[in-house]
Amino acid sequence: MKYDFDKIYNRRNTNSLKYDFAGERGRPDGLIPLWVADMDFRVPDEVVSVLKKKAEHGIFGYSEPKEDYFGALENWFSSRHGWNVDGRRFVQTCGVVFSIGALIRALTHIGDAVIICQPVYYPFSQIVTDNGRRLIVSELKNENGYYTVDYTDFERKICQNDVKLFILCNPHNPVGRVWTREELIRMGEICIRHGVFVISDEIHSDFVYEGNRHIPYPTLGERFEESCAVCTAPTKTFNLAGLHIANTYIYSDSLRRKFTKELDAQGYSQSNVMGLIACQAAYTYGAEWLDELKRYLAENLSFVRAYLREHIPQIKLIEPQGTYLIWLDCRALNLTDRQLKQLIQDEAKLWTDDGYIFGAGGSGFERINIACPRSTLKQALENLKQAVENIQ
């Protein structure tokens, strides 16, 4: 490979949320961090170069994107996902969760119902309730490690609760599903039938494993495009989360104006200049880096799969179709959530995301981030193996 993803960078004492805030997050020091969706890989050199150039210029005034920025978005989504999109329909914000919150406020009222399918990225439930909306949950069905939507339950709860908005996660975090066109159409048809607006969080869309394909929600057809907003960002793809840049696609001019009016109400205007130029550089020059990274992640996944099968068969890998966050079924250990957390944290010395925070269906599961050098992953699994052996 041209890029060295085995190289270990010392991230401690850099104000890294992943490495430097164990105490503040109620965790002991010295754990191997495999939790937050933050990769341990250096960004492409072209991104570093444009950031250096801007830093050397030394003036960081208000900035907005011009045509070449929107062109970079158009080229990326067209070449990577077959989505021929008008870049001017993207609105820049500081992050996907921020955009979801603004969309909730712009398109619903206090007390309105918002539906999600758990287990799912836990800020979804928080952003709904923090904005005074009613949270409605339709649990995904887990059939021998393969997750599907319970369409009957999904539609029934939409009708019973007069749901106004659905937050879709595609690819799905944490269960790793990449929804097929047929599945998306079936969800979308239910939403259209009952007047439910769809927010599609597609931040992990660039991480799809061989044999699967990400389908951008608006490509399902005109009816779907007109009743959705798509939240995208280069931050997961290129490890740019600290630069706070996201691009939210809204086809409808009137709905886009509602969204931007809500941003105005929050006092948000120009985006971070470093985020803007990093996004453009990443989408312009980062394809080769990403392709090599995806091969490395696939090898990491193969390593985990084989290691668990051989050394820790009590823990089952939920086979992911996408994302670099994998979902581990630990229920065969017969531990409570509290006991499982103690095993992972105190015995294996790992910092992972406990499954129950993603919803009731996550009890007995753990989410781990495999976007790290393989040596780190190997040490983590060896720690976990020893901890499990000690309780048998």
CATH evolutionary superfamily of the largest domain: Type I PLP-dependent aspartate aminotransferase-like (Major domain)
What share of residues is helical? 40-55%
Strand order of the largest sheet: 2-10-9-8-7-3-4
Low-confidence stretches: none
By CATH, the topology of the largest domain is: Aspartate Aminotransferase, domain 2
Name the average pLDDT: 98
Distance between the termini: 41 Å
Global geometry: globular
Structural class: alpha/beta
How can the largest sheet be summarized? Answer: 7 strands, mixed
Radius of gyration: 21 Å
Number of domains: 2
Number of helices: 14
Number of strands: 15
Q: Would you state the CATH class of the largest domain?
A: Alpha Beta
Order of helices and strands: HEHHEHEHEEEHEHEHEHEHHHEEHEEEH
CATH architecture of the largest domain: 3-Layer(aba) Sandwich
Beta-strand residue percentage: 15-25%
Describe it.
A hairpin with a 6-residue loop joins strand 11 and strand 12. Helix 4 runs parallel beside helix 5 and helix 6 (151-161) runs parallel beside helix 7. The strands form four sheets. The protein has a seven-stranded mixed beta sheet with strand order 2-10-9-8-7-3-4, with helices on both faces. Strands 11-12-15-14 form a four-stranded antiparallel beta sheet. It has a two-stranded parallel ribbon with strand order 1-13. It has helices at residues 17-20, 45-57, 67-81, 96-107, 123-130, 151-161, 181-193, 222-226, 235-238, 253-265, 273-285, 287-311, 337-347, 374-391, and strands spanning 32-33, 90-93, 113-116, 134-137, 141-143, 146-148, 163-169, 197-201, 228-232, 246-250, 316-318, 325-329, 350-351, 353-354, 365-369. The mean pLDDT is 98. The chain contains 14 helices and 15 strands. By secondary structure, it is α/β, with parallel strands linked by helices. The longest helix is centred in the last third of the chain and has 25 residues, at 287-311. The protein has two domains: 17-43 and 287-391, Aspartate Aminotransferase, domain 1 (Alpha-Beta Complex); 47-285, Type I PLP-dependent aspartate aminotransferase-like (Major domain) (Aspartate Aminotransferase, domain 2). The chain is globular.
